[in-house]
């Protein structure tokens, strides 16, 4: 069911003529991503916004069934549309595995096995140090170079008008310009429990909720796509927000 923004406080606004479509935590659910692209395309054909920006809040890979095709879709989309891709903790961890294969076992706990499988690579548990290095080499050989470049070039945040887009959230009491990347990618309780304003209205994912939460100071649009089959799309124009 669509969710609309709270109405009892001054609403954050985008610049005139700008519409933003935001998604988070796709986690290899390429089939759901394709469905949401169709929703965006139909909406744009119907309403023809002056300037549309598609903002993706990270966690494109791991857990779900098809990380490879998800990245193919996002990279293809970037060539045709005005897109912004943010870094999630899963992308940060994956790139750290490429630098340090000894982290492979921990990556498997985060859903890395599903990513491996999407590139046609398999692995058994309990790999030795040498086997982990061999596995990472096999994976990087199997990955299109543009996929690795895409994952390495992700940005931590995006700001437009009164909105601040980020994967996990921000540390309360710290100016947005001084936030640590570790908090932007990983924070949970300190941010989620805060009722204070953060300087801008924060749109984030990272912590799954049953349905999108459009609160007074933030919006959480991670609805656990890989587990629930529900990938949420947030549309913002002017001071209006609608989660589908």
Relevant terms:
11 strands, alpha/beta, five-stranded mixed β-sheet, six-stranded mixed β-sheet, 37% helix, 244 residues, Purple Acid Phosphatase, chain A, domain 2, single chain
Structure description:
- It comes from Bradyrhizobium huanghuaihaiense.
- GO terms for molecular function: bis(5'-nucleosyl)-tetraphosphatase (symmetrical) activity; phosphatase activity.
- Residues 19-209 form the Calcineurin-like phosphoesterase domain.
- With 244 residues, the chain is α/β, with parallel strands linked by helices.
- It contains ten helices and eleven strands.
- It has a single domain, classed as Metallo-dependent phosphatases (Purple Acid Phosphatase, chain A, domain 2).
- The strands form two sheets. The protein has a six-stranded mixed beta sheet with strand order 1-11-10-2-3-4, with no helix packed on it.
- The longest helix is centred in the first third of the chain and has 18 residues, at 30-47.
- The mean pLDDT is 95.
Kindly report the spatial arrangement of strands forming the biggest sheet: 1-11-10-2-3-4
Quaternary organisation of the protein chains: single chain
Provide the residue-averaged pLDDT.
95
The beta-strand count equals: 11
CATH architecture name: 4-Layer Sandwich
Terminal Cα span: 7 Å
* Low-pLDDT segments: none
User: Strand percentage, roughly?
Assistant: 15-25%
Number of domains: 1
Structural classification: alpha/beta
CATH domain class name: Alpha Beta
Number of distinct helices: 10
Largest sheet: 6 strands, mixed
Radius of gyration: 18 Å
Query: Helicity level, as a percent range?
Result: 25-40%
CATH superfamily: Metallo-dependent phosphatases
InterPro entries: Ap4A_hydrolase, Calcineurin-like_PHP, Metallo-depent_PP-like
Pfam families: Metallophos
Organism: Bradyrhizobium huanghuaihaiense
Domain Calcineurin-like phosphoesterase: 19-209
């Amino acid at each position: 069911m669509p969710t609309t923004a709270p109405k009892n406080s001054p609403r954050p606004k985008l610049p005139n003529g700008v519409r933003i479509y935001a998604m988070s935590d796709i986690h290899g659910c390429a089939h759901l991503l394709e469905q949401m692209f169709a929703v965006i395309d139909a909406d744009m054909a119907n309403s023809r916004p002056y300037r549309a920006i598609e903002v993706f809040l990270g966690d494109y890979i791991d857990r779900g069934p098809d990380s490879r095709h998800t990245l193919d879709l996002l990279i293809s989309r970037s060539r045709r549309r005005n897109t912004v891709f943010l870094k999630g903790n899963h992308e940060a961890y994956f790139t750290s595995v490429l630098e340090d294969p000894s982290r492979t076992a921990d990556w498997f706990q985060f859903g890395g096995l599903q990513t491996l499988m999407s590139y046609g690579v398999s692995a058994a548990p309990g790999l030795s140090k040498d086997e982990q290095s061999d596995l990472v080499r096999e994976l990087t050989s199997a990955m299109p170079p543009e996929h690795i470049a895409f994952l390495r070039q992700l940005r931590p945040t995006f700001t437009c008008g009164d909105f601040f887009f980020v994967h996990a959230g921000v540390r309360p009491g710290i100016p947005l310009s001084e936030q640590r990347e570790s908090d932007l990618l990983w924070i949970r309780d300190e941010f989620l429990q805060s009722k204070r304003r953060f300087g801008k209205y924060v749109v984030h994912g990272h912590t799954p909720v049953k349905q999108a939460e459009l609160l007074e100071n933030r919006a959480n649009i991670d609805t656990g796509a890989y587990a629930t089959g529900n990938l949420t799309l947030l549309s913002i124009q002017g001071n209006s927000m609608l989660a589908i």
